[in-house]
Structure formats: C-alpha cells, structure tokens
C-alpha cells in the first residue's frame, strides 16, 4: 500500500498519511504507526539489485531499507513538528513476558512524551523466513501491547468484499462484520503488488486477533480521502469489525488463565484496601513480605496478612528487587536499585481482584 502499486515508496502518499496522523496527534489522540515497506525501500535505495531469492538477501534488503523507511517517516512528521521513535520487534518480544513489558514501557514512554512510535518487524535479524502477513499480525499485537482503542489496517482495497472486486464487477463492500468464520476467510485474497508482505487474508487474521481483545478494527483503503480521520470520527469507511469484549477484561482473563503463579507478595491492610476497594496499583510502600522466587513479568498472588489471596497480577519487579524495596516509598526505588520500572509494583491494569 505504501508503494501505491509501483516499485518504490510513494512519498506523496506517505506525506498525506503523515498529515492525517499529525492532525490527530495535535487533537490529543495517541497514534502508533506499524509500518511495512522496509524491503521495498531497500530495493529502491540499492537500485533494484539482482539478488538470489534467499533469506540472507531478504535480511540484506530489510537492513538497508529499514533505515531509509524510518528516515522517510521522520522527515515527513518533522514537517508538523513531531518526533518519531523506532521499535523493531519480533513475535518473540511479545511472547516473552519480560521483553513484552520492556516493549510496552518503551512504547508508553514515547506516547507520554508526544512522540509517535513507529513499529516494524525486525526482519534484518529474523531467524525464520519472513512470513506473509507478519506486519499485519504484528500491528494487531502492537494494538494489544499499547491497549489501543482502535486498529486501522490500510490496504489497496476499499475493504472486505463479498467477492473478488478485481475480477467481479458486482462485488459489494462488506461494511460491518460481527463474526469471522470460515466463509468470510474464503473471501479474503492475497497481496497483488509483489512488494509487500500482507494481503487481505492476513488483515482478516489480524482483525480477529485484535477484536478478540476488545479492539475495534477497520480495514480500509489507504488512498480514501482523509481515511484515518474519518475512521477515528466513526464516519462509515471500509469494513468495520466490532470488538468482542473490553480490553481490560480480556487482559484480566489472560492473567487468570495464564501460567501458574510464581510467588506471593504480602500486603499491609492499607495496601489491601487500596487494591481491592479503590482500584489502585500496588506500590512498594504497602509490601510487608515476599514469598517465592520470580522474575519481572511473572504472575504472582497478592495476599493479606492472614495469607488470604486478594488479587493476582503481573509483577514489574523481580522477587530479588522487591526484597530490597518492600516497605519503601516509590520515590526511593531508583536510589535503592539503581534503576526503576515505574512506581507500580503491580499495575492495576495488570491485576485482577479476586
């Protein structure tokens, strides 16, 4: 979609997309951009070299193209006085708990400072073949990573049709989807440009991932006038997928059904009340005892002074760290440890009260 069907990045189209995103940022809407185009940019920058169809060639093109791609976006957003920050991720970064938390912390720090995070698959160091649709699926997981309200998947089609619009002139746009089933998946086609890595089938897969976590999804044409702003303003554009459940509840269900707890954090009465009655995060000041050995990102039980479990959540600090900061004020964490991962030991968004 970023090449507009040509062999190189369509800079005029990129600046139009940047304009729309910049307008949203100025209006107070947080924007995260998950972009494809690294390999296409690499081919363009190197003058379309004749390379063998190997994994090493793809990694070479991605390595060269990624710098060109981020440079292009940086220059375009600078027109509107905005800065960008690059996050190169792999699926492993989102599956490993500690790396997941680190990625989320980086992303949230960028957003908190008005910087647009630009996310892409780290193709240059991929250990398995670059798969079709990785950027689509990565965008869905990025939406979960940052607790997004909406995921917009831009493509070269107006949305999902009831037939292939490239061959059937009577094909009709499906404007609303409440259920994704096998019949709907059969309607999805593949990429036609030969430069990208995603088609409608992978966008449908990404939509299913996101909507199951409570994220609204819209698949629309990237060339539709003011498409991003219209989607955000709920103007009917493309194909809209209804979210299945609230994102927070989805994350709580994952915590409940996730791996067995690795340890316990004992809370004083004030901390128990703050967590269970007031919906607050757990702070180090309210911790009286640490039981078990666990790492940052592990799931732990929060118990009261009698040992009764009152909540379950993901710890942002290891048991070793917590043994040093238990009972201390949050503003002394960095002084004690030499670093900090934020004031919350267990953030309320990563916690389910039992």
From TrEMBL:
Domain of life where this protein originates: Bacteria
EC number: 2.7.2.11
Annotated Pfam families: AA_kinase, PUA
Enzyme type, top EC level: transferase
Pathway membership: Amino-acid biosynthesis; L-proline biosynthesis; L-glutamate 5-semialdehyde from L-glutamate: step 1/2
Location in the cell: Cytoplasm
Binding locations of ATP: 155-156, 197-203
Main localization of the protein described in the UniProt heading: cytoplasm
Catalysis performed (reactions): L-glutamate + ATP = L-glutamyl 5-phosphate + ADP
PROSITE patterns: GLUTAMATE_5_KINASE, PUA
Residues in PUA domain copies: 263-346
InterPro entries hit by this protein: AceGlu_kinase-like_sf, Asp/Glu/Uridylate_kinase, G5K_ProB, Glu/AcGlu_kinase, Glu_5kinase, Glu_5kinase/COase_Synthase, Glutamate_5-kinase_CS, PUA
GO term, biological process aspect, one: L-proline biosynthetic process
SUPFAM superfamilies assigned: Carbamate kinase-like, PUA domain-like
A cellular component term, taken from the record's GO annotations: cytosol
Sites where the protein binds substrate: 36, 123, 135
UniProt keywords, alphabetically: Amino-acid biosynthesis, ATP-binding, Cytoplasm, Kinase, Nucleotide-binding, Proline biosynthesis, Transferase
GO molecular function ontology, one term from the record: glutamate 5-kinase activity
NCBIfam families: proB (TIGR01027)
Family to which the UniProt record says this protein belongs: Belongs to the glutamate 5-kinase family.
Free-text function comment from the UniProt entry: Catalyzes the transfer of a phosphate group to glutamate to form L-glutamate 5-phosphate.
The protein's name in its UniProt record: Glutamate 5-kinase
Native source organism of the sequence: Shewanella piezotolerans (strain WP3 / JCM 13877)
Lineage: Bacteria, Pseudomonadati, Pseudomonadota, Gammaproteobacteria, Alteromonadales
